[in-house]
Amino acid sequence: MDTTYDPALAGEGADDGQPLLYPRIDCRDVSVFYSGKQAVFDVSLPVFDRSVTALIGPSGCGKSTFLRCLNRMNDTIDGAKVTGEIFMDGENINSSHIDPVLLRSRVGMVFQKPNPFPKSIYDNIAYGPRIHGLVDDRQELDAIVEKSLRRAGLWEEVKDRLGQPGTSLSGGQQQRLCIARAIAVRPEVILMDEPCSSLDPIATARIEELIDELRKRYCIVIVTHSMQQAARVSQRTAFFHLGHLVEMGDTDQIFTSPRERRTEDYITGRFG
Ligand SMILES: Nc1ncnc2c1ncn2[C@@H]1O[C@H](COP(=O)(O)OP(=O)(O)OP(=O)(O)O)[C@@H](O)[C@H]1O
């Protein structure tokens, strides 16, 4: 499928029966500094809707730092400064009138290590919809909890133990719980920072299947150390090196015929 970025198509549906593919997020000249030291350099890239974008590159190249720009998580880091523009549905998310807490409900995040709240399975999911005022009564809340757990592929495993602590689940189940928690507040975008790095191969395969299912509804951006994972789950791949975006393209193209020598060297294991 051709996903070449065309600003003229932004916000328009495809007319060929293919999934809607337009930039949900458009990053322009994004740089990040930690206490004045630059970690990300002038990165411009589109992030398409209803698809998975993988950020790959050697350790320390700025993948996680860049990911955190997309929901302003760098705001929470002392000394971090972000410049450039990030448009989401045409609005610059760094504008002073954007409420970062609301933004983070639209742009959910799943971390490396599953981090369920010290609450029941039910309350892990119910917490977000409650504080964001998304529900009027218990019935509606029950429905959101069930729907989110179903979408995260966890419902059948936990429906009879919703009152038990989220931390009583296995690592893979906890990660699916965290994904369900992100989904519960009806995000448009889901950011995942190495979501499988603490999981065994079976739990990893389960999360990868889930990501593939979720991409039909959401815009997903994933940081991964695993090139195999990027190749399996993503449709677009961005390769970072030393804080620079070296190359971005359709995942097939990046892995079979990269344009840049540095990308080729990385994916063929010559460095990294
Ligand atoms: N909170 C921070 N304070 C200061 N420097 C930071 C901070 N977080 C990251 N950095 C620096 O920014 C650069 C990019 O780090 P980042 O974690 O984004 O890279 P990464 O590609 O995600 O690495 P990894 O794959 O190892 O997780 C590194 O030089 C790192 O040391």
TrEMBL record:
MF (Gene Ontology): ATP binding; ATP hydrolysis activity; phosphate transmembrane transporter activity
CDD domains in alphabetical order: ABC_PstB_phosphate_transporter (cd03260)
Cellular component aspect of the GO annotation: membrane
Keywords: ATP-binding, Nucleotide-binding, Phosphate transport, Transport
Pfam families, per database record: ABC_tran
Biological processes annotated in GO: phosphate ion transmembrane transport
Domain ABC transporter as annotated: residue spans: 25-267
Domain of life: Bacteria
Matching NCBIfam families: 3a0107s01c2 (TIGR00972)
Protein's name according to its UniProt entry: Phosphate ABC transporter ATP-binding protein
Originating species: Hyphomonas atlantica
